[in-house]
């Protein structure tokens, strides 16, 4: 369990509100998908920088909700918030042209509105 999951778990266990931004989004990747992509890149002649992440960015709020779902935890302590600043995510379009490795989504797009965080 990583540090983000441990912090989330502490909030859940203490029933303390965990305020997370719905409009700050970032790119993530499952470590197994990343490993597959690295293995594929080893045999590829590509040189340069590449973002290996999910197709859709995810908000901090959605990410924590998805972690709760993944671990089977109650997510009622997670409270949505809109921050003053909306932060970017990295473009991953180059990955799609170079790699065949499929990068999965933490949560399915049809189950979630990524822009609104719900």
Describe the protein in words.
This protein has 118 residues and is α+β, with helices and mostly antiparallel strands. The chain has one domain (3-106). Helices cover 36% and strands 10% of the residues. It contains four helices and four strands; from the N terminus they run H-E-E-H-E-H-E-H. A two-stranded parallel ribbon has the order 1-4. The two termini are 24 Å apart.
Secondary-structure content class: alpha+beta
Number of helices: 4
Oligomerization: single chain
What's the mean pLDDT score?
A: 82
Describe the biggest sheet? 2 strands, parallel
Instruction: State the strand order across the main sheet.
Output: 1-4
| Radius of gyration, CA atoms, in whole angstroms | 16 Å
Distance between the termini: 24 Å
β-strand percent reads 5-15%
Global morphology: elongated
> What is the domain total for the residues?
1
């Amino acid at each position: 369990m990583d540090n983000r999951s441990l912090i989330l778990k502490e909030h859940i266990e203490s029933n303390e509100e965990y305020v997370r931004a719905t409009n700050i989004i970032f790119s993530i990747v499952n470590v197994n998908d990343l490993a597959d992509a690295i293995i594929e890149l080893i045999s590829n002649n590509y040189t340069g920088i590449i973002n290996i992440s999910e197709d859709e960015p995810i908000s901090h709020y959605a990410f924590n909700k998805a972690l709760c779902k993944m671990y089977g935890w109650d997510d009622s302590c997670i409270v949505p918030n809109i921050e003053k600043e909306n932060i970017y995510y990295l473009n991953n379009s180059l990955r799609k042209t170079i790699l065949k490795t499929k990068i999965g989504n933490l949560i399915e797009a049809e189950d979630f509105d990524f822009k609104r965080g719900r």
